[in-house]
Design a protein that fits this description.
The complex is a heterodimer of chains A (984) and B (474). Chain A has 37 helices and 17 strands. By secondary structure, chain A is α+β, with helices and mostly antiparallel strands. The two termini of chain A are 26 Å apart. Chain B contains 13 helices and 16 strands. Classes of the chains: A alpha+beta (984), B alpha/beta (474).
């Protein structure tokens, strides 16, 4: 990878440190060494503010509500103008005197707080006042300063220059470099999250060319697994999960967001661009699908679908979640603390909290219910869609032509209808009735022909007035009714009938059955519809109703003519009296009579449904959809039911430079999410770059330069190496937020390459490695523990991206979830062996193997996982079928690839798992195990079979099962080793 | 020193202690090292982060009986004759105006009479509903609070609040805090165990966040015991591997770790070795623990369970076995209390499922001399409305009932009261924070002092609230 021109320092070569240190020592304040407290030069920001924050700010800090005696010590004015601090006059400074006082009425903090500053802390305050009480803005709120460095051609790597100044000041020197094999393994895990291929290790170890190290680094950085490794960390930060989190914890569609992250790191998308895409990808002009996928970031929060949850309460929760997490994720600030009261330690008010929340008020969401996922339409898909659209356009074009030509035929068509319009009924007998006739002894009364049906002309009909279009009750007794009517038409004509009946009904016209419906129902209008034909002259209509029980009834309405009533009515009007709508209706009816038109319509419908099917087949993901912003107001004490608070508009906390004069200001619009995103992703923002490089540092040294990683505010610890953090932040911004450049810069340093084994001196002087005189060793992250075992065994499927997968999980582990009740269905085939970062992330019940190794549930932003060491971890590595199967497959590899002798095989297995040769002492332990288990499995072949049957991958037929089972035991040991799951 | 460093220091002490004893081969470190290294002034059994008690510790451990779903106080511990008088009449708006409501949003609010009768029990005449015949006999042991309140009206957040003192996910649960602060008195078992049973009503989901360690290391999180499958996940050997063969694997692993540890001077190696030992012991101790066949028939009869059947009663018996073996915090969930409809039959059914087991647990602990230093706590995440939801009751947070037994809580008393309709807690109102503060007090802990720095703030179980209720503790 080429470095930008301004980075062409040759800091990748060994240097004479003493020279360098002499040239730099004057320019940087060194304050790590513990010197006599009496004489110590005090730095306000590093030494004094943390004491004030810890003991005083709660009552004399940013929070107006809880501020006592109207005194605040978090501002320069508050401390100095108020007179509590009188520079150079500790005896007259109340701040100090109150701390020193033994009088319970005067003592500060008051005895009730049960918080006493130590003598050393009080001395620090005194020294600070004595030396002039200089005030400074909190370090992380001021722009980073680039420290002076030796930039001569042979100068050391800037990171090493800066670290070594402090080391020298403390009489320490860097630890020697780790051996090549250790470095190879460290770099492989750090840069790709996977163990190195041993052939690469061997090549790297043997390569004595001067840029062997850099070549090895580049090779790893060019691997597509680099993006996966970065994603493992970043997905924790943004709280990516496959389920909605609250209550029923239902699945959500979000995998494309993970692909976006992996791809962005692999494509080296600048971090500032990633920030903008995360927060406001949807608002970018002509937003691409990739940017819309990225905007899914705003939807990663927990949501609820619980019955009885109030939308208003949850909208308030979501707003607070976004402030809290956006603050932590990008700014390293605990803005969430200002939800109910002004921040106790940092200068953020409750109003500013809600102003920040107002940036997100445009996000379309319901409060209660699962947000909808949107299809991810990649360019290829877009092309396919365009093909669909082109096809549709073509069909619609044809339809237009047909429609136009039909329009020209309208007049002719209408004239032809004139004859039909003329067909009229000339006589109507009205209804006659017979019934009820008893159903007794008749099995199927609707099909049973009584005389009124078989010979109607000779039956005894009774005339009855039953007006059309009304529901009529018939005598309430089980029985059959026949109704008969004769109508005379002037010409042959169609007739549309609307019928109602209680219960079953059958209709004849001129002796032919035209309708029947054997149902049980109460009568209502228009229950059945059918069409039939009347002849010119007299027509006989016979209706039969079977009442099975209860009430009986009848409804009849008929229209003659071939035209629907509405169309006929329009046609009655002279064309000049027809409304535009009526004209449309008529044209539409006319088109519907055209076969050509109808077949085109069928083609269009089919093309539309194919298009929809294609859209449905695309991956879906949550995206941000912007809408009219909802009103945001200050919620007193965070109470969502209180609507009395002041209404607020989007704004960033006033301690920071305000939003740039962007389009928002010039257009006289309110600032929006995009403006917020640009403000965060700005070189002017003092926090963004620092926060990110601090966390990057953690990935390569085990912990950050400033701790904790999620609070760079007043309560955070000032970095021990502030100039190093600043240098990294500036380098990051000046490289145009090039993440890969920063990763490479860090791992190219000598500091990174040091051994992690601490000397006795370091153990004593700097047990926590604050001065970075060595590397660190720590357990692999949960995902990598899995990846490592699968990779070593050869089972790992290295497919990148896609939907989440389900490896083995103990049955019933989800039994306490509900709405709906669920059971984990493990995948089969390749998806059982994917990398850990693709494992389905269920917030309520995270996969137990991942949970055991400290993977977080991702309900909130996690910037630093705990690294615990528990018996559950041992149980997972010993007994989880994933690891037993991996051991079996590893054993298979050992037997086929590991050489001829047991000793050779053991050594090969060690090379694979821990990238080194086995020692004779270690070999002895495993040879003993081998001998014992060989004997045991020989005498218990069932046990060997049972062990080998664990896992879905097939057991090869051509192997000696006893041998494979025995080596499975050996490989189980190797996969369980502390060293195997540790990055050193 | 930040928190991670404190932990590291603890571990380092373990490693050095072990090196000092010259461990080699299979004679390995044990968890005891931590407690042996502990300060001598600490009370018996304290081996966590707290170096000394803030108060004299009355109790050593907790059994938390969680009536999940929200037990109706009006059919169990809070008798409201006035509500019966007003049955069917509109609920006075003075109670309900502007109050949060769950499923009854936009419905007509009518009074709904208590669905079960009450009796005066024990010497104090404590009123307990007749659905709890066994608990009625234990009235003399109970410290009933009728003025509980909480902050969340939906199940999930309400459980989170009850367990962690916060509505925001990611905070440690009470069990995790205790395990962190006090450690555990067992070398073979986890210190915080969670048991769940079902039956009686709609089984609301329960999330693992309810026993999560939040920002504390995951070794402090609750370990779930299961009545089906492996009692603890991954506790059984793989097929084809017997105990002896598994021991060979653990042994070889630890021998190799030992060799490696001597080269790299990493305290984590020693911890890893001890954790493998513990894991191996757990593979024995846990199946033995959950196998109730060594209990006498009289004991099984007392609890009313035929044996390990996953019922609430058998889980109560299991809880006793766990605390006998030194587990610090046992939490039992019974998920059958969400009676939106059919509260009469629902409460009767669910009460029957928990009554005998709970009463037996109290009796059994007392007979074994364990009740005095064990806190038994019995509560839902909220109560239910005096208003009808059809034939049931909706969620309610302004007043509900719970009880303690043992652990130095005053037996045979009631504390606090709701108004005459059972809506608002009006007398001696208790919050969840007060409840936590008082329990920690009994365990010898000042709730304001058990803190951990996270995101720049000293967090504690009680957030910035909580008052110790001195009137109810001996």
């Amino acid at each position: 990878m080429a470095l930008p021109p301004h980075h062409q320092l040759s800091y990748f070569q060994g240097e004479d440190m003493r020279l360098l240190i002499r040239s730099l020592a004057l320019s940087i304040v060194i304050c790590f060494t513990t010197v006599n407290a009496q004489d110590k030069q005090v730095d306000f920001d590093q030494d004094v503010r943390p004491i004030l924050s810890n003991y005083c700010f709660e009552c004399h800090g940013p929070d107006q509500e809880s501020r006592e005696a109207d005194l605040r010590f978090d501002t320069q004015d508050g401390l100095l103008e108020s007179g509590v601090v009188r520079p150079n006059r500790p005896d007259n400074s109340d701040l100090l005197q109150r701390m020193l006082s033994n009088d319970p009425d005067l003592q500060m903090p008051p005895p009730s707080k049960e918080k006493r500053p130590t003598a050393e802390e009080i001395q620090t305050i005194k020294n600070w006042i004595s030396s002039g009480a200089h005030w400074e803005t909190h370090w992380s709120f001021t722009p980073p300063k680039r420290p002076a460095l030796d930039e001569s051609p042979n100068a050391a790597h800037p990171i090493d220059q800066l670290i070594q100044i402090r080391l020298a000041a403390n009489g320490l020197s860097p630890s020697p470099a780790a051996d090549r094999a250790t470095l190879a393994r460290r770099l492989a895990f750090d840069l790709t999250g996977l163990p190195p291929d041993y052939s690469q290790v061997a090549k790297f170890v043997a390569d004595d060319s001067p840029n062997a190290y850099q070549r090895y680094v580049d090779q790893l950085l060019d691997s597509p697994h680099y993006g996966e490794r970065m994603a493992i960390y970043w997905l924790d930060v943004v709280r990516f999960a496959d389920s909605n989190g609250y209550h029923s914890d239902e699945p959500r569609k979000i995998a494309p967001f993970r692909d976006y992250i992996i791809d962005s790191f692999n494509q080296d998308v600048p971090y500032d661009q990633m920030i903008v895409e995360h927060l406001a990808g949807d608002l970018l002009p002509n937003a691409t699908v990739r940017q819309k996928v990225a905007s899914g970031f705003n939807m990663l929060l927990q949501t609820t679908n619980e019955g009885g949850a109030q939308a208003k309460e949850y909208l308030a929760k979501y707003a607070a979640d976004r402030v809290r997490n956006t603050g932590t994720i990008f700014l390293g600030l605990t803005l969430g603390c200002a939800e109910c009261h002004d921040h106790k330690f940092d200068p953020f008010t409750t109003k500013e909290f809600y102003q920040f929340a107002a940036f997100f008020a445009d996000i379309q969401e319901q409060g209660v219910g699962n947000p909808p996922a949107h299809p991810v339409i990649e360019p290829d898909d877009q092309q396919k869609l365009e093909e669909f659209d082109a096809q549709l356009a073509e069909l619609k074009g044809k339809a237009k032509l047909v429609s136009d030509s039909l329009a020209q035929q309208m007049a002719t068509w209408e004239a032809a209808l004139a004859a039909e319009k003329a067909a009229q009924l000339t006589a109507d007998s009205g209804w006659s009735i017979i019934g009820p006739i008893s159903l007794d002894g008749i099995d199927n009364p609707l099909q049973h022909a009584w005389p009124a049906e078989s010979d109607p002309d000779n039956a005894d009909w009774e005339t009855k007035i039953l007006a059309d279009g009304q529901v009529h009750a018939l005598p309430e007794t089980p029985g059959v009714f026949y109704l008969r009517r004769t109508v005379t038409a002037s010409a042959e004509t169609p007739m549309q009938v609307q019928l109602g009946s209680d219960d079953a009904v059958k209709v004849w016209v001129n002796g032919k059955v035209v309708h029947q419906n054997d149902v049980r129902r109460g009568v209502a209008a228009n229950q059945d519809q059918f069409s039939t034909q009347l002849n010119a002259g007299a027509n006989s209509i016979l209706v039969k109703i079977v009442n099975y029980s209860g009430g009986a009834g009848f409804y009849f309405q008929a229209e003659t003519g071939s035209l629907p009533t509405a169309i006929a009515a329009i046609l009655q009007k002279p064309s000049s009296d027809r409304s535009e709508e009526e004209r449309q209706q008529l044209a539409e009816y006319h088109r519907s009579q055209s076969d050509e038109w109808n077949s085109l319509q069928t083609e269009i419908e089919s093309a539309e449904s194919q298009r929809q099917q294609f859209v449905d087949s695309l991956p879906k993901t949550l995206m941000t959809v912007s809408t009219q912003p909802r009103t945001m107001r200050i919620l007193a004490r965070g109470n969502w039911m209180d609507d009395s608070g002041e209404e607020v508009q989007p704004a960033v906390p006033s301690i920071f430079q305000s939003l740039n004069d962007t389009a928002a200001a010039t257009d006289n619009k309110l600032p929006n999410r995009l403006d917020l995103a640009h403000w965060i992703a700005s070189n002017q923002n003092p926090l963004t770059a620092r926060v990110f490089v601090n966390r990057l540092w953690k990935l390569y040294f085990g912990k950050g330069l400033a701790e904790p990683l999620d609070d760079l505010g007043a309560q955070g610890t000032r970095p021990i190496q502030p100039e190093l953090l600043d240098w990294l932040a500036i380098e990051f911004m000046e490289s145009d937020w090039d993440v890969r450049h920063m990763v490479k810069t860090i791992v190219m340093s000598q500091a990174y390459q040091q051994t992690s084994i601490r000397s006795e001196q370091l153990a004593k002087v700097d047990p926590y490695n604050r001065l970075l005189a060595r590397q660190a060793s720590y357990r692999l992250d949960a995902e990598m523990v899995r990846d490592n075992a699968l990779a070593v065994s050869g089972l790992l499927v290295r497919t990148i991206g896609g939907e989440s997968v389900k490896p083995y999980q103990p049955k019933g582990y989800w039994r306490h979830m509900n709405f709906p009740v669920r059971e984990w269905q493990a995948d089969d085939g390749d998806n059982l062996y994917r990398r850990g970062l693709y494992t389905w992330w269920q917030r309520m019940f995270l996969h137990p193997s991942m949970l055991a190794f400290d993977a977080p549930s991702r309900e909130e932003c996690t910037v630093e996982r705990a690294r615990s060491n528990t018996p559950q971890q041992a149980l997972v590595l010993l007994n989880d079928p994933t690891y037993v199967e991996a051991a079996r497959q590893f054993a298979r590899r050992v037997l086929t690839e590991g050489g001829d002798t047991a000793e050779a095989k053991l050594n090969w297995a060690f090379q694979m798992a821990v990238a080194r040769n086995i020692s004779s002492e270690e070999q002895t332990v495993l040879l003993e195990l081998l001998a014992k288990h060989t004997a045991e499995f020989q005498s218990e072949s069932n046990s060997a079979d049972a062990l080998l049957n664990i896992g879905a991958s097939p057991v090869p037929k051509d192997v000696d099962k006893v041998e494979l089972a025995t080596w499975t035991s050996v490989c189980r040991v190797i996969l369980n080793l502390h060293e195997t799951i540790t990055r050193r | 020193m930040n928190f991670a460093e404190q932990i590291q220091l603890l571990r380092r002490r373990t490693f050095l202690g072990q090196v000092g004893r010259g461990v080699g081969g299979v004679a390995l470190a044990s968890m005891l090292a931590e407690s042996q290294a502990a300060d001598a002034v600490r009370p018996d059994g304290w081996n966590g982060a707290l170096m000394q008690p803030h108060f004299p510790a009355k109790a050593k451990r907790v059994i938390f009986l969680c009536m999940a779903g929200g037990m109706s106080h009006l059919e169990t511990f809070d008798h409201k004759p006035k509500l019966a008088e007003m049955h069917g009449q509109p609920m006075p708006a003075s109670y309900t105006a502007g109050q949060p409501i769950a499923q009854l949003q936009n419905s007509e609010l009518k009074c709904f009479a208590p669905q079960h009768s009450f009796s005066q029990c024990g010497e104090s005449g404590l009123e307990i509903a007749d659905v709890f015949p066994h608990l009625q006999k234990q009235a003399g042991e109970l410290c009933v609070v009728r003025s509980m309140t909480t902050n969340a009206i939906n199940h999930d957040p309400a459980h989170t609040f009850m367990n962690t003192g916060s509505l925001i996910s990611g905070r440690p649960s009470m069990g995790a805090w205790l395990l962190y602060g006090l450690g555990k008195e067992t070398t073979d078992l986890p210190g915080f165990v969670v048991l769940t049973s079902v039956g009686g009503g709609q089984s609301q989901p329960i999330a693992a966040r309810q026993w999560h360690s939040g920002f504390l290391p995951s070794k402090y999180q609750g370990v779930q015991f299961h009545s089906q499958g492996d009692p603890v996940l991954y506790v059984r050997n793989p097929a084809g591997v017997d105990r002896d063969r598994q021991h060979d694997i653990v042994n070889a692993t630890n021998q190799l770790n030992q060799i490696h540890g001597s080269l790299v001077d990493d305290p984590e190696v020693a911890t890893r070795i001890s954790q493998y030992e513990l894991a191996f012991r757990m593979q024995d101790s846990i199946p033995a623990l959950v196998d109730l066949s060594d209990e006498t028939q009289a004991t099984l009869d007392l609890y009313g369970t035929p044996g390990a059947d996953g019922s609430f009663a058998s889980n109560c018996l299991l809880a006793r076995r766990l605390i006998e073996r030194g587990v610090r915090f046992v939490q039992l969930y019974h998920r059958g209390w969400d009676h939106h409809g059919g509260v009469k039959n629902g409460v009767a059914t669910t009460a029957k499922l928990v009554d005998q087991g709970t009463a037996a647990l109290i009796t059994d602990l007392k007979n074994r001399g364990l009740l005095e230093d064990t806190i038994v706590v019995f509560t839902g995440e909220f109560g239910r409305t005096p208003m009808a939801q059809g034939s049931g009751r909706d969620h309610h947070i302004k007043g509900f009932s719970m009880f303690w037994a043992g652990g130095g809580f005053k037996p045979g008393m009631t504390y606090g009261a709701t108004d005459e309709l059972g809506y608002n807690a009006v007398e001696n109102v208790l919050t969840v924070h007060d409840m936590h503060a008082t329990m920690l007090h009994q365990l010898g802990i000042d709730h304001k002092k058990l803190t951990v720095r996270f995101q720049g703030r000293d967090y504690r179980l009680t957030d910035v609230h909580g008052n110790i209720v001195n009137e109810i503790v001996a």
